[in-house]
Amino acid sequence: MVNVKILPDKTHASEEVAQILHDLIVEKPNAVIGVATGSTPEGAYERLAEKIKEHNTDVSQLRFFALDEYVGISWDHPESYHAVINRTVTVPLGVDPSQVNVPEAPDDAPVGSVESYDEKIAAAGGIDLQLLGIGRNGHIGFNEPGTPFDAPTHVGELTNITREDNSRFFEGGVDEVPPTAITQGIGTILKSRQAILMAFGEAKADAIRDSLATPPAEDRPGSSLQHHSNCVLYLDEAAAAKIED
């Protein structure tokens, strides 16, 4: 069951998601949180950082697991997800880098499963709340269309549309975007106890419509969330414009 909440804009949605995160941290100081990258969740991270500072919230026991990372990119590259998570989550929230996990794979990693990351998540007690965004082609994490719904963390090839969309972050354009990435699998994501997907803007309207269409299908990765036990989509009106029901 996927629940949908439509907010006036990204600012309102980011505030609500940040409050949910802060409430979780207060209730469970050793919570395990799955974090996404990209521009979509940044407002929520900013508001959460403000709430932590305002309330002097204890973050020393939290653990974070990032969704994905490019293969074949240096971790100190400004657009590696090691670097992005550091500047949007680790530093603003005031957590120690040892509390934050980002998936890793060798530069020459073949396409296929990487079980060690799922084992680390399980050892931490599982993810309490997983934040997600969605690509124009419906990918969540870097689970591209056709990814099995039971897939574990794995290395996969990125589609042209994903590389083109992410090229805005790279000075050299699409040619600088790595062709492969390691990502939490859909099966990994579905094991989280709660999931929140955020999507804003008309460019995401088709992906949101397809994610809610039934029955779920592997060529629409976002539709896998219909199998999640506790998932809410936080949308602005533009992203929700094509929802049929």
From TrEMBL:
<dbReference type="Pfam" id="PF01182">
    <property type="entry name" value="Glucosamine_iso"/>
</dbReference>
<dbReference type="InterPro" id="IPR006148">
    <property type="entry name" value="Glc/Gal-6P_isomerase"/>
</dbReference>
<dbReference type="InterPro" id="IPR004547">
    <property type="entry name" value="Glucosamine6P_isomerase"/>
</dbReference>
<dbReference type="InterPro" id="IPR018321">
    <property type="entry name" value="Glucosamine6P_isomerase_CS"/>
</dbReference>
<keyword id="KW-0119">Carbohydrate metabolism</keyword>
<protein>
    <submittedName>
        <fullName>Glucosamine-6-phosphate deaminase</fullName>
    </submittedName>
</protein>
<keyword id="KW-0378">Hydrolase</keyword>
<dbReference type="InterPro" id="IPR037171">
    <property type="entry name" value="NagB/RpiA_transferase-like"/>
</dbReference>
<feature type="domain" description="Glucosamine/galactosamine-6-phosphate isomerase">
    <location>
        <begin position="12"/>
        <end position="228"/>
    </location>
</feature>
